[in-house]
Amino acid sequence: MKYISTRGQAPALNFEEVVLAGLASDGGLYVPEKLPEFSQEEIQQWAGLRYDELAFKIISPFVAGAIPDEDLRKILGETYATFRHPAIAPLVQIDKNEWILELFHGPTLAFKDFALQMLGRVLDYILERRNERVVIMGATSGDTGSAAIEGCRHCKFVDIFILHPHQRVSDVQRRQMTTVLEDNVWNIAIEGNFDDCQNIVKASFRDQSFLPDGCKLVAVNSINWARIMAQIVYYFYSALAIGGPQKPITYSVPTGNFGDIFAGYLAVKMGLPVEQLIIATNKNDVLHRIMSSGIYDRTNLHHTLSPSMDISISSNFERLMFDMYQRDGSKIAALMAQFEDQPITISSEAMESARSLFSSAAVDDATTCEVIANTFARTGYLLDPHSATGVGASVQCRTSAEQTIVTLATAHPAKFPDAIAEADVGVSPSVPPHMEHIFTSEERFTVLDNNKSTVNQFMVEQLAAQRT
Ligand SMILES: *Cc1c(COP(=O)(O)O)cnc(C)c1O
User: Fold this and answer.
1) 34, 74, 112, 202: which is the annotated catalytic residue?
2) Mean pLDDT, residues 36-65
3) Ligand 1 centre and the CA of 254: distance in Å?
């Protein structure tokens, strides 16, 4: 399988290279040159497979040539053995045609574990055979950092540095990261906000000359193709579990960087019958505005009760735009160049193709709280604030009472106790037993100034000390 850039100017890469690459050299994102396609008969035959067995069916065409089947099966088996629910991604029915797909049974209680538990293992596998080490560097406002650290803590060939804004992430989120004490894990608390952290990371990727020879940075945010790939699986899994593929389902997906829902779009392209994909945003509604007006513009960032969806631009949307424009890389390159300093208008033909599958809604904090409270009162089910935006959007976008809607529950409510308190449901979510230890365990992190050279120097010193 070959991967090509959305901007058409970078060399095509194979799977191994694409996992290590991050952004393409032309600034674009990598996508498969051609997707595997499955017939309805074939998909039907997968009903009843274990999650990791189904994952093998869906993922193996993407890694063909890079990881032999037997090794891939082993990696996937180990990946999903870290999940605490035997179904891995269980479905809960909360009304006649309303379902919740629980994606929070992984080690850090958010859906990012589905991809990052796999990515850590895939990286280690590839690096061992290439006889290389890499340094992962990332910024986090919450879920990505802990999921990445959990996914890489046992890696032999990966060192990981995660930057978070000092005193600006929740207690649970910080402790999930800082109580991991393995020698290849560093938490850096930056005296600044999330944007400061992200700016340092971006600048470090642009200029990696501070690193020792032969060492390179790898990205674990959702521009990394492997993350999208892993997320395709649970669309097939959930559809099969509730009577697909004959019955087309609608998915409502709490969305920030458009990674998770883009995986749903790929599932459709690969043959899964889906009625509608609902883009659920919070007050940061850039995607809802694109869908409504065809105009892609930047606005200020709002801090909301669903912080993992707080973004002002949505990187993976470029991957969809590439298809909306018939995979014309030069067109995407021109549009994205324009987007550097002004809004862009997407053509009406391109918007029409997107609107035939996607609908969208923005759900503000007040509505999020109402949805949490109403859903609990109506069904006894406690949603986290991200998942609540998904349920809120599903109500707004529902086209008939008969439509089967599955909302992706992207995090466990215990990760966001403040939002649950604000929704005033009268109960507080309890932290699952396997996570209780973080409240008493030793923490390790280093507070550094908001300065690229300070951070880079710290990284170099730590790597040198570790490698002697
Ligand atoms: C990351 C995250 C999202 C947004 O996912 P994208 O792939 O960026 O759209 C939604 N909910 C939770 C809990 C998250 O951690």
Assistant:
1) 112
2) 96
3) 7
